[in-house]
Amino acid sequence: MFNKISSHKAARLTSLILILALAMPMYGAPLFPQKAMAQSTDESLLTSVAVIGFQNNTSYNILGNDRGIGFIMSEAAKLGVEEKEKIRFIAKDKVLGELGSAASIDESLALETGENLDAEQIIYGVVEQASVKGTEYASVVIDLYIMDVGAGTLISRSRVLGEKALRGFAGTEEQLLQKAVSEGVTKALNEALENQYKYGIVTTVSGDTIQVNLSQRDGLVKGATLAVLNEAEQIAVIEIKEASIGYSRGQVSQVLGREAIRGGQKVRLIYNPRQISAEISAVDMQKRKKKFGNTALLVLGAIALASSLSGSSKGAEPPKPASGPEVIASSDGAAAVYAAAGFHRDYIPNPPSKISNVASSALAACNTATNCNQDVCIVSGTAYNFSLATSPQNPNFPTSYTIGFDLTGKTLSASDQSNMKIATCNADTGEWELYSATYGRCSWLGNKFCASAAVAHFTPYAVVIDNRPAPLPAPSNFTVGCSDSKAILSWSKIQDTNNIGYRVYNCSAASCTTP
């Protein structure tokens, strides 16, 4: 349905505004990184953006005297980008004056021009592959870039086909191509802005191979590029090599900072390549326009789509979990969270963090054993804090996750292995909450020997050995008799080596004391 919406300029603009308006609360991020305060009208607080224009790689004069800057600024004005995103476009005349008589526009010149104009962001592009078929159809390829001037990094890119079909058109080829450019700029700008609303999470890191939870369901394809973010700073770029239904894997193609990539960090779409084909005839275009010409119907479709994206429609299904196995490991690789069916989008784990001082942690209230042969004791070095990168309303997972701890090099007897548990501390009672642990090799933890258990929520956990003796059963044949105003108690002796005697309490209605 969205493809139908996108085939009409007026419907597309209206639809995009509706979709962005409903989608923005999901991510809470601006289209342009900005320094503006909410509701501020002080221009010194607005992000300054210079539209540099296009490099014309066609043989046609189709950009006019302003290098195509007018195309971009006109579409941005229709979308209300300046007001909504708290940005300020630098005047076109200033940009053209700075460009002077430069014969071509490339990334280096665009960034230099932006820097000379004190711009924080630039928008520039390339127009190429112009094609005219007969007198009624024209197409061009538009390659659009949004860049951060200070960092010199690519924020977003789109590469689209601009095409125009007009039956009975009586103008020149260049005039028809200009209309195709206008259509292409609309599509390219919309897509470049939409890219910045597609966020995901790094789920696993193995050398320079990165797995993320963005997938084919999000429209991701092989060759897409993602920015890895540390807070708002872009620290690396990933190129996707494999996009599947539940996850995607890629390679680090560019390192931009000193911060290491780790599980739980945000990623944002920069560029998603698309198949570009200019083999649409003017007649086919007219048929498409006739078939899908009801703008009002398309806008209603956009509302339905946007509502489903935001989850606001009645009966909307909750986000579905990924369909492939996912792992997020600690920075030392000794603890990890595993989900065979992938992490639920609302319950993305942070990498487990090692607890170096148990005495000052949330486990301290329960870690009071003095004799590990008769109590619950933590296996040294296995205390980790587990938390979520997301903030769901309900802290309990829809389906349990498996947590695991590397026990390589730990000296564990057969008794220790059979008495092994995963534990967390109930601070209210000061008692351990114990989970049955599985001891063996964990393929998802480097195939190391590990202790693992299924958990339904995150808190600090550790591997423990529970050497407490089993509770004795209640005495059998317990009777109470009365004689001479005295109570006579009798029972069958419990035959157990841990039974060292009995304690009889003298009780009143209010309390009990030992005799």
Structural notes for this entry:
With 515 residues, the protein is an alpha+beta fold. It has four domains: 30-196, ABC-type transport auxiliary lipoprotein component (Rossmann fold, 3-Layer(aba) Sandwich), CATH 3.40.50; 198-274, Beta Barrel (Thrombin, subunit H), CATH 2.40.10; 326-466, Sandwich (Chondroitinase Ac, Chain A, domain 3); 478-513, no CATH class. It is built from ten helices and 26 strands. The strands form six sheets. A six-stranded antiparallel barrel has the order 6-7-10-9-8-11. Strands 14, 15, 16, 18, 19 and 22 form a six-stranded antiparallel beta sheet that branches.
Task: Please state the oligomeric state of the protein chains shown.
Answer: single chain
Instruction: Assign a percent range to the helix content.
Output: 10-25%
**What is the alpha-carbon Rg in Å?**
33 Å
Overall outline: elongated
Average pLDDT number: 79
Strand order of the largest sheet: 6-7-10-9-8-11
Helix count from the secondary structure assignment: 10
Architecture (CATH level 2) name of the largest domain: 3-Layer(aba) Sandwich
| Unreliable segments of 5+ consecutive residues | 1-7, 22-31, 34-41, 278-285, 287-323
What is the highest CATH level, the class of the largest domain?
Alpha Beta
Residue fraction in strands: 25-35%
N-end to C-end Cα span: 83 Å
Spell out the CATH superfamily of the largest domain.
ABC-type transport auxiliary lipoprotein component
Number of strands: 26
Sheet bearing the most strands, described?
6 strands, antiparallel, barrel
Number of domains: 4
CATH topology value of the largest domain = Rossmann fold
Q: SS-based structural class? A: alpha+beta
